[in-house]
Design goal:
With 449 residues, the chain is α+β, with helices and mostly antiparallel strands. It folds into 2 domains: 280 residues, 3-Layer(aba) Sandwich (Aminopeptidase); 147 residues, Alpha-Beta Plaits. It contains 13 helices and 18 strands. The strands form 5 sheets. Strands 1-2-6-3-7-17 form a 6-stranded mixed sheet, with helices on both faces. The chain has a 4-stranded antiparallel sheet with strand order 11-13-9-14. A 3-stranded antiparallel sheet has the order 4-5-18. Helix 1 crosses helix 13. The longest helix is centred in the N-terminal third of the chain and has 22 residues.
């Protein structure tokens, strides 16, 4: 079935691959300190890509102070549903060039994968949507809208404003969020849950000013040592999160082996796993705390002084269903209550994002399961994801009647956000085909051999 779409995608892949390369070459880093003009250039290229794909209305959506989003639409045929397809065109900072095998914004192919910042997260999603429409000869049997955000990698700062301002424009019966991934290369996946997120900056002060470490060391504690002792209280001896008042669940249907986890993450030899329960529960449904950064003098600037103040950014991933405000209060209380030696501690709240969970039942999910099986040649699996995508809850709140599906073409070896990010080209092609088949089936226009 759907051999016409399969042949169309196969024929289109060389051009779609060139489009992906061109998009990756645009360093559309949305983080502060990077050129916002490159994010706009990425938006303009994406808009042109969708014009060439046959969308009848394409334009940039603008909000004051925000990076531009891209909107594209093919009108809904009478009586047919409307599908909104989401992706984002902004990317994470590349990090040190020395950690990349080649320049991060110069894509290259090796062993069936294309490497470069944004190849997987999420410029692949931009290409999937364009390719699916082109495979359908720009005439899907359903209405199709696309929103390609330009700020996902900085927490979708203005997405709520976009959804408020363009609420009617973006309304749809089904919303397909293409920013997730597959269980493994060649194994299609529907995501069923996302952890929530809160973070904060904790500052520890022991002195009003720096003093000589030889004159006062041994009686006065330095701020870095004191901060380190505080951060160590966040975990039990086995690595389990030690903050009271956090929800936790061991409920997962599938599991990774320890060997699979180690192959995906790349730990040093002999590193022990932390936490308890199944591997997937630790990754998807239990809370996790990480220290993301520390502000203290670098070793190159070290002198013989007691450092008076040090700071750390602490990130807490939340079990699906946990209220972010309650979790932040629990984390703050823990940090304020466990400081040693009478040091001053100040906790400054940072980001908060809701978790999300869904039940994958109904016609739209059945259609996507069928489309994924047809495209990949194997049944899809359902899994949770340990990461946090707060905007999913934003879509759910603003369009409560819409069916939301979470999918993507990344895989555990894609290294999203890390050096040498990559995308498997076979999964990219299968993802395009799956979306084209799903749009066809949603419209009831099933083609057979």
């Amino acid at each position: 079935m759907h051999d016409d779409l399969r042949e169309a995608v196969d024929r289109l892949m060389p051009e779609l691959r060139r489009d992906l390369d061109s998009l990756v070459r645009i360093p559309s880093v949305s983080a502060p300190g990077y050129d916002p003009g490159e994010v706009r250039r990425s938006a303009e290229f994406t808009a042109d890509l969708y014009r060439r794909a046959g969308f009848t209305e394409v334009r940039l959506l603008e909000i004051e102070g925000a990076h531009p989003a891209v909107f594209a639409e093919i009108p809904t045929p009478p009586g047919a549903p409307t599908v909104l397809l989401y992706a984002h065109h902004d990317v994470q900072p590349p990090g040190p060039d020395s950690e990349w095998e080649t320049a991060p914004f110069e894509p290259f192919e090796r062993d069936g994968r294309v490497y470069g910042r944004g190849t997987s997260d999420d410029k692949a999603g931009v290409i999937v949507h364009a390719g699916a429409i082109r495979a359908l000869q720009s005439q899907p049997p359903v209405g199709v809208k696309v929103i390609v955000e330009g700020e996902e990698e900085v927490g979708s700062t203005h997405l709520g404003d976009f959804l408020n301002t363009y609420h009617e424009l973006l309304a749809a019966d089904a919303i397909v969020i293409h920013d997730l991934g597959n269980w493994a290369v060649g194994v299609p996946t529907l995501t069923t849950s996302l952890r929530g997120l809160v973070d904060c900056t904790v500052e520890v002060r022991t002195l009003l000013h720096a003093v000589h470490s030889g004159s006062f060391g041994g009686a006065i504690p330095d701020a870095i040592t004191t901060l380190a002792r505080l951060l160590a209280t966040l975990h039990e001896e086995n690595g389990e999160v030690a903050v009271a008042g956090l929800d936790s669940s061991d409920d997962t249907d599938i599991d990774l082996t320890e060997a699979e986890l180690r192959a995906q993450a790349g730990p040093v030899d002999g590193l022990q796993l932390i936490g308890s329960g199944s591997v997937t529960a630790r990754l998807w449904t239990k809370p996790a705390i990480s220290v993301l950064a520390i502000d203290a003098p670098p070793i190159s600037d070290a002198i013989n002084q007691l450092v008076p103040v040090a700071r750390a950014k602490v990130s807490l991933r939340l079990s699906p269903g946990q209220d972010p405000a309650e979790a932040l209060a629990a984390l703050t209380n823990h940090l304020e209550s466990n400081i040693d030696w009478g040091a001053e501690v100040t906790v400054t709240p940072g980001a908060m994002g809701e978790s999300f969970s869904l039940t994958t039942s109904g016609e739209a999910f059945d259609i996507f399961r069928e489309a994924l099986k047809e495209a990949y040649g194997t049944n899809p699996v359902e899994m949770g994801v340990g990461g946090s995508i707060p905007f999913v809850a934003d879509f759910s709140h603003r369009y409560p009647e819409a069916t939301i599906l979470l999918t993507g073409v990344a895989d555990p070896t894609s290294r999203a956000h890390g050096p040498n990010e990559s995308q498997d080209l076979g999964d990219l092609q299968a993802g395009i085909l799956a979306e084209a088949i799903a749009l066809r089936l949603l419209g009831g226009a099933v083609a057979t051999d």
